[in-house]
Design brief:
The complex is a heterodimer of chains A (about 130) and B (about 190). Chain A is globular and about 35 Å long. Chain A has three helices and six strands. Chain A has one domain: 2-Layer Sandwich (Transcription Regulator spoIIAA), CATH 3.30.750. A six-stranded mixed sheet of chain A has the order 1-2-3-4-5-6, covered by helices on one side. Chain A is an alpha/beta fold. Chain B has a single domain, classed as 2-Layer Sandwich (Heat Shock Protein 90), CATH 3.30.565. Chain B has a five-stranded antiparallel sheet. The chains are: A alpha/beta (about 130), B alpha+beta (about 190).
Chain lengths: ~130, ~190
Amino acid sequence: METIKIAGTEDTPNVILDAANDIMEISGRSLPEDVASFYEPVLNWLDEYAKSPNPKTVFNFKLVYFNTASSKLLLDILMKLEELHENGAEVLIKWHYPEDDEDMAEAGEEYADIVDIPFEKVSHAD
Amino acid sequence: MDDKKNVRGFLEFVYEFYKSMKAHEITLVYEGEITHQITKAFTSLTESNMAKEDESGSVQRKVFHVMVECLQNISKHADEFSSNDYLFAGRGIFLVSKGDNEYSVTTGNAVDNSRIDELKEMLENINSLDKEGLNQLYKKQMKEGRLSEKGGAGLGFIDIKRKTGKKLEYHFLPIATDTSFFLLTSTISRNL
């Protein structure tokens, strides 16, 4: 399966989707000019991945900032992962947030409320 | 400005303008088309200024967030307004001010009068809700709302109110029979 690596910029996140090495991560900042087209390859990749997923999927969100338009697309990603989980695959979401960032911690709680998938919040120092 | 007197008059105006900005504690003002490039430039400028002034991380993040949402609102909505009037088509004003206790971010852009009721209703509803109510509304909108063609999710105002905890103050001023100037200001406390 194809690996996606998108290097982060000041307004778009770093994305790694590597099924062979079990690395799935979105990190950094997300306020793209066009959110829908930025996240389209990510959503397509997840559709493809769902056809033959790894026995266990750990998806890491390690964002320091995202705008409200991105929040909607992050939910779309989580809903695809929820579907994967509903279909019997083992899925874990790891929501990393800076320890002093209450808003980012709350955003994680909010998503954990909406989607029904094992969800782990992890605080980090930087 | 082809004679000295007019140049001097203009320069005096600039001085008055400068004093007026100082009096209102305005740190950034921009008039014109608001693009993604402008959004990036202003947010990074304000971010580095706040870092230099040792503003707390939490205040910095909130100011950054409010700026992004306000600028993206204008860049996504201002050009819906089709006017032949060069003063208002596809443009807006963006202003940041910094007082002892708070920052404020203000935007202004022209809107068709037909949109005023809908905007007022939305803002009044958001202003009437407490944090829990705002969280519910945000979730509902995120789940049910669709991304507009321009990429707006209708979430910006809700999120500004819940992140700042302050009412969204707004005002409509008539431009012509069918258009108004929509002004909106958000405040972020510096004591977070």
